[in-house]
Design brief:
Elements lengths: L2 E6 L3 E6 L4 E6 L6 H11 L7 E6 L3 E2 L2 E2 L15 H5 L3 E5 H9 L4 E7 L3 E7 L2 E5 L5 E3 L2 E2 H5 L1 H27 L3 E5 L13 E3 L4 H8 L30 H5 L8 E7 L6 E5 L22
Helix pairs in contact: 3-6
C-alpha cells in the first residue's frame, strides 16, 4: 500500500511517501490553519499516486480526529473533515505517538519530542499510549513544556536547558517504569550528553511510524476503531488501529537512509535513521515476557 505520511509541526509540515521516503517540508507557523495545511499538501502532492494517509497531529486525538485545537499553530482542526478534503482514507494520530511508533524496537519505551513544544508517548509491547503530561506543572508555576520546549531553550540557554532535560528524563523514567527513552524532535540534536538509558531518535522516524499504521493490512485483520479504552484491546488510545494491525509490522525500525529537502531548499541533505539500539542503551530491546497485550 502506498501511504502518504503528514507530520504537522509548529515550524514545518513534513510530507513523505512510503514508496521513496523523501521528506518534503512546507513552512507552517502560528497562523497555519487545518485548511492551509491541506491546501499546501495537496499542492505539493498533486502528481503523487497514493492510496491512504497517516496524519500526525500536535495534540490529543479521539475518534480518529483532533480532539483539541493545537497550541502552537492556528485553529480549525477539530471540525475539519480531512478524509473529505483529501478524498482518501485518513488515520489521525498524535504526532509524538507517530514518531514513537517509528522509533520503537521493543520493551517499554518512553518517547519525548523536544521541539516547539514537548511531545510525549509510551509504547509497551506495541501498545501505543499518547500522553498529555507536557502541560503539567514542573517548577516555578511553569510546565514541563515551558522548560523543555523552544521557549525554555531560549530562556535558559543550551547548558541549563540540557540539565533540565536530564532531570525530567530521570523523573519520567522512574515514575513511568520505562526501560529506556528515545529523545526525538528537532532540539534533540542540541544535547551534548544523553540522559541515562536514553538514545537520540530521528525526525524521519515519524515517517516510518506513519507507514506502520497501514502496514500489511491485507495480511492482518481489519483495523478496529473502539469507543472506549479496554486494556487488552486499545493500541493507540482512544480510537486507533488494533493490536492485530500493529503487531503485523516489523519488530524494529527499518535501517535506511533518508533524504530531506524543503520546498524552498537548496537540494537534498542526507541523514541516517537508526533504531534506538544502535546508539547507547540496550534496554529498549529487552523483551517483556510477562505482559501479553494480544487483543
Amino acid at each position: 500500500m502506498r501511504v502518504l505520511v503528514i507530520d504537522v509541526g509548529g515550524t514545518h509540515i513534513k510530507v513523505a511517501g512510503s514508496w521513496e521516503r523523501i521528506t518534503h517540508r512546507i513552512p507552517s507557523g502560528p497562523t497555519m490553519t487545518a485548511a492551509d495545511m491541506v491546501g499546501g499538501v495537496l499542492e505539493l502532492t498533486r502528481e503523487w499516486d497514493f492510496e491512504a494517509i497517516s496524519l500526525g497531529y500536535p495534540g490529543p486525538v479521539k475518534d480518529n480526529r483532533p480532539y483539541r485545537e493545537p497550541i502552537n499553530i492556528a485553529g480549525g482542526w477539530t471540525t475539519f473533515d480531512f478524509q473529505k478534503a483529501f478524498a482518501k482514507p485518513v488515520r489521525v494520530i498524535n504526532d509524538a505517538a507517530m514518531q514513537a511508533l517509528g522509533s520503537y524496537a521493543g520493551g517499554r519505551m518512553l518517547f519525548l519530542g523536544l521541539g516547539t513544544g514537548l511531545g510525549t508517548a509510551i509504547i509497551d509491547d506495541w501498545r501505543v499510549e499518547p500522553l498529555e503530561i507536557a502541560h503539567l506543572p514542573y517548577r516555578k508555576d511553569r510546565s514541563y513544556e515551558d522548560y523543555l520546549g523552544d521557549a525554555g531553550l531560549a530562556r535558559l540557554g543550551d547548558v541549563r536547558w540540557e540539565k533540565h532535560v536530564h532531570k525530567v528524563c530521570d523523573l519520567f523514567r522512574a515514575a513511568l517504569l520505562c526501560d529506556g527513552i528515545v529523545l526525538g524532535g528537532g532540539n534533540a540534536r542540541k544535547l551534548m550528553n544523553m540522559p541515562d538509558a536514553a538514545t537520540r531518535g530521528a525526525n524521519e522516524n515519524a515517517i516510518h511510524g506513519g507507514v506502520r499504521l497501514w502496514e500489511r493490512v491485507a495480511e492482518s485483520t481489519a483495523p478496529e476503531f473502539v469507543g472506549s479504552r479496554t486494556p487488552a484491546q486499545v493500541i493507540v488510545a482512544a480510537d486507533e488501529p488494533s493490536a492485530a494491525l500493529l503487531r503485523a509490522a516489523d519488530a524494529a525500525p527499518v535501517h535506511m537512509k533518508q533524504r530531506s529537502r524543503t520546498t524552498k531548499g537548496k537540494g537534498p541533505t542526507k541523514s541516517a535513521v537508526q533504531s534506538p539500539g544502535q546508539r547507547g542503551t540496550k534496554a529498549l530491546t529487552t523483551k517483556r515476557s510477562s505482559t501479553n497485550h494480544t487483543p
